[in-house]
Amino acid sequence: MGPLPASLSSSPRKLLDRNSSKLNAVVQRDIKSSLLLLLVLSTVLVLSVLYSSQADQTGAQSGGIQVEEKCDMSMGKWVRDPRGPLYTNLTCPTLPDSKNCQKYGKDPGHLFWRWQPDGCDLPRFSPERFLDVVRGKRLAFIGDSLARNQMESLLCLLSQAETPTLVDRDALDKFVTWHFPVHNFTLMVMWTEFYAHTVPVPDTNGKPPIPFDIHLDRIANLTDFGIVYAIRRVVKAALQAIAVCKDCKSNLVTFLRTYTPGHHEHSSWSSGGYCNRTRPLKEEEISLVSIEWELRNTQDEEVRAARETTGSKRFGVLYVTKAMMLRADGHIGAHKDKRWVNASDCLHWCLPGPIDMWNDMLLQRLTEDSPPVV
């Protein structure tokens, strides 16, 4: 199989090992102790998880989250917004230095835009409203560094209404838990790079195969199915696993966040590529027949198929692909501490920045059906 396109170089990696994965242990433990699970599947999938406490059982059973899209937020344009972001790099107490682009001199022009859907409005994020909706629950983002990027954005947004307490953080900063005591709300990130895991296939004698690194035979006959085929398979497998999960509560809700591209220009991350734009791209500068859009449509198709299979509304989508294809100006780029990595980061997003819109969209999805889960 040939190399992946440069824009897809941060494809997802391992999610679950059924026997020994720390992530699997964490997820299973929390599912059994809770009533509502919201999954926002990152990079190509983001997995976010919202759990209700025991005290919410009656309310959760009488009015679960519905994820039918009342407003098509996938198509629209970025318009000027003189109000700027809800927080700054000085007012977010949890802002990681790696996302603090203003500290390292980034032009602030990227901060004064908002996403305007074509047929409706996307309300400005309200931290008070979000905390009311998730009172007594737990929300986890499960994915790679882009899932963590979105969680860090949400943490900054919510900290404008209530200061969170750090509960737990592993040595590698891959499993982190915060708590908002006034609302009894827990926010987590659980690191994973893949949403699929390998399973050893026994040989003809029923014995484990002999360990090997790689075996190539008849190289000329190898079929390259392409990245879209691979993504479809892994998305389908992840959603099907959730759909048939016997340990998951019946009101489990899953949101899949669609693919977002990097914007390295003139080369790749590791060979001098950069992203120094200071305003969003124009409509004619992106293509909706690109591989990014094909990946987005593949994800959408699999979510729709999962809905039909389960006969429920437990699967939703955060359609952020087009919006983020336009925001080549919102990446970290060279605006960071170069003592650690000198290359321009044109994949992750500054805080504050365009990624805050993902949480505008998440809140809208949680509240657009009545009555919302409280």
UniProtKB/TrEMBL annotation:
One of the record's GO molecular function terms: xylan O-acetyltransferase activity
Using the record's annotation, list all stretches that form the Trichome birefringence-like C-terminal domain.
Answer: 221-364
- Kindly state one GO CC term assigned in the UniProt record: Golgi membrane
Question: Which part of the chain is the Trichome birefringence-like N-terminal domain?
Answer: 69-121
InterPro entries attached here? TBL, TBL_C, TBL_N
Keyword ATP-binding belongs to the record: no
Q: Name one Pfam family in it.
A: PMR5N
Q: How does it sit in the membrane?
A: Single-pass type II membrane protein
Is the keyword Membrane assigned to this protein? yes
Chief location category: Golgi
Q: Where in the cell is it found?
A: Golgi apparatus membrane
**Keywords (A to Z) from UniProt:** Golgi apparatus, Membrane, Signal-anchor, Transferase, Transmembrane, Transmembrane helix
- Known PANTHER family for this protein? OS06G0234600 PROTEIN, PROTEIN TRICHOME BIREFRINGENCE-LIKE 9-RELATED
Q: Which family does it belong to?
A: Belongs to the PC-esterase family. TBL subfamily.
The protein's name is Uncharacterized protein
Species in which this protein is naturally found: Eragrostis curvula
